[in-house]
């Protein structure tokens, strides 16, 4: 994985929207676990609506994370499809546990208006290469 500064710089170059703020926040908050970061953010910035964004590969594994159920109860979660992960992700423990909290991807505003837990699986056109392959073959410019 590229260094944090390089990943942030690339994310900033892609996320050109006034409502998206790319930071190395975990370093500043001195948090290691996602749930700890979310709890601190919600405490320090209670006026902000946060949405946790992750790839389908993470949905397939999130049940191994510290306090993962609490994550879904603290913030809406948007899961983006990744090549070869949709079936595994949508059959995962997390997807089954929160099946009734799933919001249709045709109703993106619903993710913010539903009571928590609320999550959405967003399907999109997929690049066939894995992130590891892209990084190892120089297909992604981290500069």
Task: Please provide a brief summary of the model.
42% of the residues lie in helices and 10% in strands. The chain has 143 residues and is of the alpha/beta class.
* Class per helix and strand makeup: alpha/beta
- How do the SSEs run, as a string of H and E? HHHEHHEHHEHEH
- Percent helix range: 40-55%
* CATH class category of the domain at 51-129: Alpha Beta
Task: Determine the CATH superfamily of the domain at 51-129.
Answer: HUPs
**Largest beta sheet: strand ordering:** 1-2-4-3
Spans with pLDDT under 50 lasting ≥5 residues?
139-143
CATH fold annotation of the domain at 51-129? Rossmann fold
Gross geometry: globular
Architecture (CATH level 2) name of the domain at 51-129:
3-Layer(aba) Sandwich
How large a portion of the residues is in β-strands, by DSSP E? 5-15%
| Biggest sheet statistics | 4 strands, parallel
How would you name the oligomeric state of the polypeptide chains in this document? single chain
Based on CA atoms alone, the radius of gyration comes out at 16 Å
Give the number of helices.
9
Q: What is the end-to-end distance?
A: 13 Å
Mean model confidence by pLDDT: 86
Please name the defining characteristics of this protein.
four-stranded parallel β-sheet, alpha/beta, 9 helices, Rossmann fold, 143 residues, disordered C terminus
Task: Please provide a written account of the structure.
With 143 residues, the chain is α/β, with parallel strands linked by helices. It has a domain at 51-129: 3-Layer(aba) Sandwich (Rossmann fold), CATH 3.40.50. The protein has 9 helices and 4 strands. The chain has helices spanning 4-14, 25-29, 34-44, 56-61, 68-74, 86-90, 93-97, 110-113, 131-136, and strands at residues 52-55, 77-80, 102-103, 119-122. Strands 1-2-4-3 form a 4-stranded parallel beta sheet. Helix 3 runs parallel beside helix 5 (68-74). The longest helix is centred in the N-terminal third of the chain and has 11 residues, at 4-14. It is globular, with a radius of gyration of 16 Å.
């Amino acid at each position: 994985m590229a260094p944090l500064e390089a990943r942030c710089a690339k994310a900033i170059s892609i996320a050109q929207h006034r409502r998206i703020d790319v930071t190395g926040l975990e370093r500043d908050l001195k948090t290691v676990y996602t749930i700890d970061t979310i709890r601190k953010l919600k405490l320090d910035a209670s006026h902000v609506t946060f949405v946790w964004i992750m790839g389908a590969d993470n949905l397939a594994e999130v049940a191994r994370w510290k306090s993962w159920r609490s994550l879904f109860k603290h913030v809406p979660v948007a899961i983006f499809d990744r090549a070869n992960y949709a079936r595994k992700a949508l059959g995962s423990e997390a997807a089954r546990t929160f099946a009734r909290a799933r919001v249709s991807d045709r109703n993106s505003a619903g993710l913010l208006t539903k009571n928590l837990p609320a999550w959405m699986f967003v399907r999109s056109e997929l690049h066939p290469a894995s992130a590891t392959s892209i990084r190892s073959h120089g297909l992604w410019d981290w500069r």
